[in-house]
Specification:
Two copies of one chain form a homodimer. The first copy, chain A, has 19 helices and twelve strands. Chain A is an alpha+beta fold. Chain A has a domain at about 445-585. In chain A, helix 1 (about 10-20) packs across helix 16 (about 520-550), helix 8 (about 285-320) runs antiparallel to helix 9 (about 345-375) and helix 10 packs antiparallel against helix 12. Chain A is globular. Chain A starts with 7 loop residues before the first helix and ends in an 8-residue tail after the last helix. Chains A and B meet through helix 9, helix 10, helix 11, helix 12 and helix 15 of A and helix 10, helix 11, helix 12, helix 13 and helix 16 of B.
């Protein structure tokens, strides 16, 4: 199984031609980087991916993790991969130098993770989780915890996790019951059960560090009584030895895909000897955890876009080489068959995939860039980037995940019967990518987050900033020959978005929360399409501008492809918002009126 | 794994309240049936499904077929299942009595197959293929072949297949090269290779009978040189013994799903000793095979709807029992959590599933009813039913298959993380149903069949018959209180369908075949939504009429559910045709102008 899983040319286009990543180096915070060093980082992640990750993609799927004598056994390569991630500085790549990080721009880190995840999503998850957990420790934990945990995690010796979900508390985090009992010492005794914990235990590391949400005994009910704890599988005693901390794996889930990484069920404190260390202040745990959750949500969107990328290139390769049929209307049965990419319907499916993959990548990098701006923008501008990032996070997560499924499904369709067989990797991609609209908050939860929280927060400030940002890009695009025709459509889309949002706001005031949020998922879908259209406008603009100066025919083809894909998106995808808008503004609350008993017979 | 996979109440509603199946018995051809005997047939297939098929659904997936010493080993139950299908008369159920069939109405047979396939799609395929092959033999083969093959196939002792696809001839059947050499005797010698042959070999039967497309040596190129052959794995010698006929299995494909049935690669005549018997006249094979292909296409749609049904009931059961979160806007964190079906977004997803499942079932039964009418309608009306059946076949196949995937995906989403795990059956359904837009002609092929052949044949006669039929139902519905509000929307949809079709017709004349058919898949999608809206109008009408007379509260709930689901379909699904229509009438041929090289970088 050899093949292309991502386009470096495209990532560089996004990094340097659409977004001015090289320009970030002008900021003191990023002074140690420049375009040349950035290219080296990209090359390094490509080499790592080609050498270590892609070759075992299939094997990690076929030999899924299993529970053996209280430990989860994973693919033997996981240990060397984690060490490679550690030694190469990948886990702390975007961390501040003060935490021994590389202070790499997030946008570049995002590109690297797209490479890694498109080569082997499961393999990348171990490091990504460790990175997120370490960031949480770096941000909020006491120095003594930082000192013990950060170096081991950044080196890839210890695994990080996020331990939130419980059997009765999945989407409803407020129902968490895992309890922390004060001991009067510098630790609590933890007791409870967590389920669906990614990389919750495995033999590819020497220790596992859980960032766990629980309740201090007697804390208020609901989200206001949730605290954050660091709970290691093995705690460190005064002499520096690792001692078992009463964290037991009770189950490894058998999943349809994403089988290279274990999802576990964990018991904490069955023997009353599980010590947890409070991170930050009591009862503010959910707020802290949102840092990791938001990062993980972007990470999930990224994973979905990356898998869709790998599936797209598999489909493209097949479509350019597989011969079947003749041009429509050709009559001579003796003529040679043509590559199936010559059929309009195959091109439509490939254009959809490219539009989803590169559009999602654009939006994810846009989010990463906003994160970078938090470090380098003047103090008074930072709120702007924070708000935009908050607003776009559920969209980047969900659009990439939901459309990533369809995109991967189209990849299978391009391969026909072969796509359904294990001889080609697309069937695995299809199974792998199905997790993404579920983990780190389902699409339904993201919809409620977007409409019920992000759009209305600070009296719509983030929402209005988004409109303003896109309109400013529309103004720039209107001056670019070959792109201007897209701007009217995008402006109309923004008007529809405004109208629908206003309508829903009114509805909420008049009819209450339930009616307001009934179709929040559709609102999210609509917003997602518009956000991706914006990204395609940016990409079409960059392609048009570059096109004029392009001399190599490969470049000309690439830019033409960009322009056609933008045209595709505006012709086939963007119009879908009208139907969503119609539904969102017709005020028949049928999903609320429908009764559970009407589903029975 | 116990649970409901289909609703008998709903099937009876469709059979007796929407379509007048009991009334068919008035026709002499169906004289031996009545409502009571029909109910008994339904009960029998339910018992068979619950007892033999559903219990091994998971096991047949986990222990997939494998090649062992030249024979494909399948689940040991396949043999008893085939015999049960044979002894119970299921294989020839809808065959004429003259062929030892039961002369069962197709519409009832369709309901039975929905039951069987929703219990275990793979298990039902063996019998369904045998039935299709036997029907082809009954229709076109010489008496001596009928005499030898039909009894063994109807008894479930011999497996039937359709052997069309070759490595270089998948969607492009005209490129078949398997060759038949005349011998001067009553058989030809066959030589060639076939791939993706469902149930092409297995140890659950004593023989396999391939209905194979090949070319008689020297036949013209293209479809005009294709003939139909009956090629058994073992031929029968003069003394009635089975002799190996040089048909060798070279591979069993490893598939993502649909793993209970083997898909094989076969070699015919490697040792120059493979005898095949011509069926019908030379060079007319494709025309004959279309009988089996059309039946199989309906069968594929049926399989997809059935799997979606099973997934829907699994999701419904989970949604009614799983508690998570509280009503939107509820503030008390100490209040008990509610079943997730109380959340509007879950209801929306369940309504979508129900709309797809029951809408598809309606359209499939509608097709089956047209097939029944071919037997009992006055001679001069038969063309009408034949044309409608021809027109609706690609739609019933593709809508059910494409939407079946989305429906099953929504079932997973209702279950969240659990839906992604093997503990629940929905992940298997999701893998199983992905085959349906591929086999028996991909969705792309169905689109070309619909727009490029069915809509324009006989100067649009089938198309106009469809419009006339739906409009006549609209007139009836306009008089039913509680349904009339749907009729305007459906009438508008028909107008859009007419406009788009006329526009495309013009475009074809002016710009040629390639432009005409470039978006045939979208045309198919649009037509499918309208056809299902029509079916939901019929169901809403029947529910409204019955509602008034309903006395049991269970019935009231059922009819309310029907009405809400129709309302859902018209509010959320039908409007999608506008976007499709916009794309189909905007004349930017970008998928044709896009070049293969633009996809490179």
């Amino acid at each position: 199984m050899a093949g292309k899983f991502i386009s470096i040319r495209n990532l560089k286009f996004l990094l340097y031609e659409v977004f001015d990543t090289a320009g970030l180096a002008k900021a003191p915070y990023f002074h140690q980087h420049n375009k040349k060093s950035m290219d080296l980082v990209l090359d390094a992640s490509m080499k790592l991916s080609q050498k270590m990750l892609f070759p075992i993609l299939e094997e990690m799927d076929r030999k899924a993790p299993y529970l053996d004598n209280g430990t989860v056994k994973v693919h033997p390569s996981v240990r060397s991969i984690m060490r490679e991630f550690g030694d190469g500085g990948w886990i702390g790549a975007s961390f501040p130098e003060a935490w021994d990080g590389e202070q790499l721009p997030h946008i570049l880190n995002c590109a690297c993770h797209l490479i890694i995840s498109s080569a082997n999503y499961s393999a990348g998850v171990y490091a990504e989780l460790t990175s997120g957990a370490a960031r949480l420790i770096g941000s909020y934990a006491a120095d003594r915890l930082k000192k013990t945990y950060l170096p081991n995690m950044l080196a890839g010796r210890w695994q990080g996790t996020m331990a939130l979900t419980e059997p009765q508390a999945g989407s409803s985090l407020s129902d968490i019951t895992t309890t922390a009992y004060p001991t009067g010492k510098d630790y609590y005794l933890l007791k409870g059960q967590k389920v669906f914990i990614s990389a919750g235990d495995h033999d590819g590391v020497d220790n596992v560090v859980h960032m766990l949400l629980g309740r201090i005994e007697g804390a208020p009910a609901g989200v206001k009584g949730i605290s954050l704890f660091l709970v290691p599988k093995h705690r460190v005693d005064d002499s520096g030895n690792l001692i078992f901390n009463d964290v037991v794996v009770s189950q490894v889930f058998h999943k349809m895909g994403y089988r290279g990484a274990p999802i576990t069920e964990l018991s904490f404190g069955e023997k009353e000897d599980c010590r947890g260390f409070l991170v930050g202040e009591p009862n503010r745990g959910l707020m802290y955890m949102f840092q990791m959750m938001n990062g993980a949500r972007i990470g999930v969107g990224l994973g979905a876009a990356a898998i869709a990328s790998a599936a797209y290139y598999a489909a493209l390769e097949y479509s350019q080489s597989r011969r079947q049929g003749r041009k429509m209307g050709a009559k001579d049965p003796d003529a040679a068959q043509v590559p199936i990419i010559e059929h309009a319907d195959i091109r439509r499916m490939l254009l959809f995939q490219r539009a989803v993959v590169e559009g999602s990548e654009g939006l994810l990098m846009q989010c990463a860039l906003y994160e970078d701006m938090l470090h380098i923008a003047p103090e008074e501008e930072r709120e702007r980037y924070e708000l935009l990032l908050d607003l776009l996070t559920p969209i980047a997560k969900s659009y990439s995940s939901e459309m990533g499924i369809l995109s991967t499904s189209f990849a299978i369709q391009c391969l026909g019967g072969y796509g359904y067989c294990e001889d080609f990797p697309v069937e695995q991609y299809y199974r792998d990518v199905r997790i993404h609209p579920i983990h780190e908050g389902t699409t339904g939860i993201q919809g409620i987050d977007l409409l019920g929280r992000k759009v209305i927060m600070k009296e719509g400030k983030a929402f209005f900033l988004f409109l303003e940002t896109v309109r400013s890009d529309i103004q720039k695009a209107a001056r670019v020959v070959g792109v201007a025709y897209l701007t009217t459509q995008l402006e109309n889309a923004l008007k529809i978005l405004e109208e629908v949002t206003a309508h829903l706001g009114d509805l909420g005031v008049k009819k209450g929360q339930e009616v307001f949020l009934a179709d929040a998922t559709l609102y999210l879908e609509m917003f997602g399409i518009i956000a991706i259209a914006w990204q395609w406008l940016l990409q079409a603009m960059a392609a048009c501008e570059a096109d004029n100066g392009a001399s190599r025919s490969a470049d000309l083809n690439f830019y033409q492809g960009k322009r056609y894909t933008a045209r595709y998106f505006f012709a086939y995808e963007l119009p879908k918002i009208k139907v969503l808008a119609q539904r969102l503004t017709d005020s028949d609350p049928l999903t609320i009126e429908m009764q559970s008993s009407y589903f029975n017979d």
